[in-house]
Amino acid sequence: ASELSMAMERTYIMIKPDGVQRGIVGNIISRFETKGYRLAAMKTRMATKEILDKHYCDLVEKGFFPKMRDYMMSGPVVCMIWEGKEAVTTGRKMLGATNPLASEPGTIRGDFCIEVGRNICHGSDSVENAEREISLWFEEGEVLDWQSHSKDWIY
Ligand code: RTP
Asked: Where along the chain is the active site annotated (predicted)?
C-alpha cells in the first residue's frame, strides 16, 4: 500500500440539532471539503434514544446524560463520514475542545458556540470509535468507496 492509502482514515462527524437549526451545516461541510477531505456519506435523520445510548455508551451513567439525550433528539442531525489522511485526529482539531469556551478561535466550536451542552458537532475520538459509530449510524450501501474513484487532485 502507498503512504497515502496507509494514512487513510474515516471519521464520523455529526452536526447536532443546534448546528442544524442555526444554519451552520453548510459552513461545517465547507470546512471539511476545503481542508481536503472527501465526503463518503451524508444524511439527515432524527436520533433515537436507542441509537444515542449506543453512540454515547461511555456517558449513559453521567448525570447530564438524560438532558443531553433530549437535546440530541430535539431536531434533525446531519450524519457524515469524512475520509482522508488522519481524518480522525484532524477532525477533532477542526471541531475544537468539548467545552466551546476552551475551544480556540478558528475551530468550529471556537467560532460558533459558548455552551458545552450546545456544542454543535460531534467527531469520533479514535479510529476504533469511528468504525463503531459509522456502523451504528450508516447502512453499508449508504457509504461510498471514493478510493476506487480517486483523482490525482484529491489527496
Ligand atoms: P462529542 O462526543 O459530542 O464529540 O464530544 P466530545 O468527545 O468532545 O466530549 P465527550 O466528553 O465525549 O462528551 C460528549 C458530549 O456530551 C456533552 N456534555 N455535556 N457537563 C455537561 O453538561 C456535558 N459534558 C459533556 C457535550 O455535548 C459533549 O459534546
From this structure: 122 (pros-phosphohistidine intermediate)
Residues with CB under 6 A from ligand 1: 59, 64, 68, 98, 116-117, 119, 122-123, 125
Question: Which of 117, 66, 129, 63 is closest to 92 using CA atoms?
Answer: 129
Whole-angstrom Cα distance, residue 12 to residue 94?
13
> Looking at 122, 123, 130, 138, which residue is catalytic?
122
* Number of other residues whose CB lies within 10 A of the CB of residue 141: 7
| 57-85 mean pLDDT | 97
CA of 147 to the centre of ligand 1 (A): 32
Q: Model pTM?
A: 0.92
SS3 category, 47: coil
Predicted pLDDT of residue 1: 46
